[in-house]
Design goal:
The structure is a homodimer of 321-residue chains. Chain A is an alpha/beta fold and 321 residues long. Helices cover 46% and strands 14% of the residues of chain A. Chain A contains 16 helices and 10 strands. A 7-stranded parallel beta sheet of chain A has the order 2-10-9-6-3-4-5, sandwiched between helices. A two-stranded antiparallel sheet of chain A has the order 7-8. Chain A is globular and about 70 Å long. Chains A and B meet through helix 1, strand 1 and helix 6 of A and helix 1, strand 1 and helix 6 of B. Strand 1 of chain A pairs antiparallel with strand 1 of chain B, so a sheet runs across the interface. Chain A binds a DNA duplex (30 and 30 nucleotides) through helix 3.
DNA sequence: CACGGCTCTCGACAAAAGTCAAATTGGGAT
DNA sequence: ATCCCAATTTGACTTTTGTCGAGAGCCGTG
């Protein structure tokens, strides 16, 4: 029997089945193989992105609430995942939507910046495969060691794998122990280049972290929960790509931030499309901070969060009409 | 029962089925309808482009011959449909490929110019549905009356319908009986605007016609076969959007061309992506003329035609190295 | 050269999806 | 108000598809 079922064959089977609309048994006889093999090839074709099945996310923007949110917050586009939905696993619902939205936003030739976190990894995990060969996925911030399976480099690589794209990693720790070392490392040519190239991205994908003891920064040991509490009292409102921001979305002036290796907020803002995805209702203040800081142009949230945002925007409308 | 199964429901079913990967019976119970309805909704979802199934056309560009053709002819991209293929109906093979390529080239917000002919109509006919709401499809040339089912306006409208896009028709005859009348009509504001807007298109889709008695121009009575033969002897090499071109791809200086209402070749050349599709092997010279005239940047042909083009380009290579 | 390990393939079964005619329902016309 | 029409829904049936374990060819190794 054949050594490799040759990408060629998979492609041909997919072509006959999906483009010409033949039945599997017809494809099988055309190709002189068994129906079972055809079924297997077709699965592979879907898994490798040779065929693309995507559903329009239109429905979720069409929502009146989404439109109102766009206006109220000055965002380019908002998608709202219904939460009453009878979906078996509602917790991934936002992630599934976000993955679809993300795939809809990606274009050939794009350079995509990806941050890290549970949300992002969940998105990567449910994302369907696509074949975007001249796309590059770059990591937005340094690595956090150890115990998590959704480290920055893993998020980047998984998404790159799904898109059949190039993944560009970034081998520096997210946080260093002294400001001096961080400065020195940032000055390293390899690192400096990576950081400065971030503003060349066409699309960014990130979430926002909460400033509490549940934060990955605490769980990974980058900060103690005491330090976190102190930062909070000093105005910390959220975490973006490993950096702590205040309620206005500006980098908080603190030692921790000076010890971080990550994309500067200005570089992030230079990216035309910034897709922010928030799953947890508890991240209301962090999200407000990120929006205030102009860190997001496209937003995916759940219905409950959307309602809160709308109430908030209604209560405290934008300054100038 | 429900008045309208509300786009909403179709969308929801498609979402649960395709994005979440539920089975039809699961979707049915979530939505409190029967499995049969779900199946029906899903078909509608595919037909309206709410879900998109596309297969990468990579395979056909990866072909070595396609690459060599691109180089030899200076085109941006070439796709070659295999002709030995055991496909049931090989004549539509090129059209199926062309439709896929076309859908891959269309982007949101595009304005697309479409010409007419059997080839184009066949493409429209096999094209799968998509949901590109802010796309406009415009007609590149005037209408030819009567006996054909693939009139310019039909090609335009059918493609617009498939894409869920806006179709912009062009209500003028393709050919008038006097040059004077043609001039007057071209000067009409409605017509003039349409013609001058053509160069704003982002993508064009057309084929090339042969200069013989089988031409639609003859069959529709725009020209007699005697006139056609005469034009041929005067250097006519092909037909583009209803206009007759010579071997260099320039508009032939003749009364017929002066009586035509159609896009100027210069406007066509101003369109960034010009997809030309040729099905018949007999259209070799017309295709050469079109390529010489720079009327095509992207090309879909059959394997046999590709070979002839390559032989030709090898025998008479491009002027400057 | 025989051996496992490997991947690919096949046939048969179980599951899922597609289809049809009949029934139901709302809306509009009489 | 009532009837008719067209569209939608449904349950039952058929066809198509997905999956499993067994088997067969290929490779490197002992």
């Amino acid at each position: 029997m054949a050594i490799r079922p040759a990408e060629q064959l998979i492609h041909k089977a997919a072509w006959l089945y999906y483009a010409h609309g033949l039945r599997q048994d017809q494809v099988a006889s055309q190709l002189n193989i068994s129906r079972a093999s055809v079924a297997m090839y077709l699965r592979k074709a879907r898994e490798t992105g040779i065929v693309n099945i995507s559903t329009s996310t239109q429905l979720f923007t069409d929502d009146v609430m989404a439109r109102r949110l766009e206006d109220a917050l000055g965002l380019d586009a908002v998608w709202i995942a219904p939460e009453n939905s009878h979906v078996p696993d509602p917790s991934t619902d936002i992630a599934v939507l976000a993955a679809s939205v993300f795939l809809e936003l990606v274009k050939k030739g794009d350079r995509i910046g990806v941050a890290w976190g549970r949300t992002i990894y969940t998105i990567a995990d449910v994302m369907s495969y696509a074949d975007l060969q001249d796309v590059t996925v770059v990591q937005l911030c340094g690595n956090l060691g150890a115990p998590y399976s959704y480290r920055p480099d893993q998020c980047t690589m998984e998404i790159a794998r799904r898109l059949n794209a190039k993944g560009l990693n970034f081998y520096a720790p997210l946080v260093l122990s002294t400001e001096e070392l961080a400065r020195a490392l940032r000055a390293e040519p390899v690192i400096r280049e990576q950081l400065s190239d971030i503003s060349d991205c066409d699309l960014a994908l990130y979430s926002v972290g909460a400033v509490d003891a549940d934060s990955h920064l605490v769980k990974c040991g980058a900060l103690s929960s005491g330090e976190m509490a102190e930062l909070r009292s000093r105005g910390a409102a959220g975490v973006i790509a490993g950096q702590i921001i205040d309620a206005e979305g500006k980098v908080l002036d603190c030692s921790y931030n000076r010890r971080v290796i990550s994309a500067e907020l200005a570089s992030l803002r230079a990216i035309a499309r910034r897709l922010m995805v928030v799953q947890e209702d508890s991240k209301f203040e962090p999200l407000l901070a990120a929006i205030a800081g102009g860190l997001c142009t496209h937003l995916v949230v759940g219905a409950h969060m959307a309602q809160r945002l709308l109430d908030h925007a209604g209560a405290a409308p934008k300054k100038a009409p």
